[in-house]
Amino acid sequence: xxxxxxxxxxxxxxxxxNRNDIELIFETADNxxxxxxxxxxxxxxxxxxxxxxxxxxxxxxxxxxxxxxEKRLSADVVNFAASSSSVSKGETLIDTVNNIxxxxxxxxxxxxxxxxxxxxxxxxxxxxxxxxxDGAHEHPTQAxxxxxxxxxxxxxxxxxxxxxxGDILHSRxxxxxxxxxxxxxxxxxxxxxxxxxxxxxxxxxxKVEHNLxxxxxxxxxxxMLRIQLERQDIKYFPSLREYAMMYGLNKQILDxxxxxxxxxxxxxxxxxxxxxxxxxxxxxxxILEQVENGVAVRMAVLYLLASQG
Amino acid sequence: MQKKTLLDGQxxxxxxxxxxxQLIENHDxxxxxxxxxxQPRGIYLADRIHQELQSILKIDNLKKGNLDIxxxxxxxxxxxxxxxxxxxxxxxIIENKKVVLIDDVLWTGRTIRAALDAxxxxxxxxxxxxxxxIDRRFSRHLPIEPDYIGKKVDSLDSQKVVVTWASEGxxxxxxLLSEKQ
Lengths: 309, 181
What we know:
- The structure holds 2 protein chains of 2 kinds.
- By secondary structure, chain A is of the alpha/beta class.
- Chain A contains 11 helices and 9 strands.
- Chain A has 2 domains: 14-138 and 291-306, Aspartate/ornithine carbamoyltransferase (Rossmann fold, 3-Layer(aba) Sandwich), CATH 3.40.50.1370; 140-286, 3-Layer(aba) Sandwich (Rossmann fold), CATH 3.40.50.1370.
- In chain A, 38% of the residues lie in helices and 15% in strands.
- In chain A, helix 4 links the parallel strand 3 and strand 4 (128-134).
- In chain B, the strands form 2 sheets. Chain B has a 5-stranded parallel beta sheet with strand order 3-2-4-5-6.
- Chain B: This is Bifunctional pyr operon transcriptional regulator/uracil phosphoribosyltransferase PyrR.
């Protein structure tokens, strides 16, 4: 039985929440999943709440998913993208957000290229903050929806073996996933070229493997991350083609494993790099389920946070 | 705490039988009527009414669903603590159907207001009726009245009416709890 309220006012990272919180979010998300599969996909819970989506970094899935979640909860939504705003005129983060808040906004969903931006903001403003990705730090709602999707597919996360493949060094999804899966009792392995695995990552209690086939034979679930070229200031591997040959998942590898594994990807997919098209579109892939669950999980997070605003 | 038994198992059985016959008077063979129990406590009564009706009418296709009203409550963010949601299980469309909403206790009427809202997500019913086991009369906050009543009870706001069911591992019983003076 999960607790009846979250232990936090903001969702800044998986690091700040506990297993009870995660289970409460999942149970609530189950109910919202039911809601979004009805003919009328809307409930009035957040009708007196205004939420600002502040994105200092590009996003399609996360932004759409948050916006849909907010609208299905009947919240009023304002959107803000840094590229089309006064940030380019030199306004600071606090000024930008305070200006938005003086328009009486109750909650802020923020994505920012710098790690800790959400944390910083939560100390300076009154509104509740949901981190939608901060630099290479955390992306809590993605980790929650990934774990929720595993739970939905395999019944439980406890005791399952999950390998995260790819650019672990620049990935906020990887860190949040590791923390979330471990809280729920899963075993986690990271796999990728040495240059893209952070030093001392073993300290988090994860296994490290540089051979993709070995990693896939060990796991129940493979989460294939995107190579984040936009964050790579130097060359970490000789060429994308070589990366795809060493760490790309294709149908042949998948079929030659000694068991059937589940393939996940947080999107956006670079087809032909970390994962080929036939794998992405195969029966073993739950990429589109992840997207659907994303809305339900985000509805649960917003609903639960709002209840203690 | 002072406890006073309002209805015991035998009385509850008689009351449920009577409510079923009243329903049959208005709904004939129930071919266009569905029963909806309100989560979390109304579903036990809905189960009993459903069983009883099917055995009286000798049918086995009477539709019944459970409706959760958590996300439609009007006290979200206005009271301490969170009400945990329950599952909905309505696997039919209620468009143009007669709906009988079923709950154990009717008090302020706010739950029923939320239920009417929640119901709209499943279509536009031809008619909605309300059946309750206990009507705490003269305590309504909204203009809502039941169509079928098990027992009317006069109670104070400080008192509590608790209904327990054999099907949840307790016994069939309705008790009135009041603070000791």
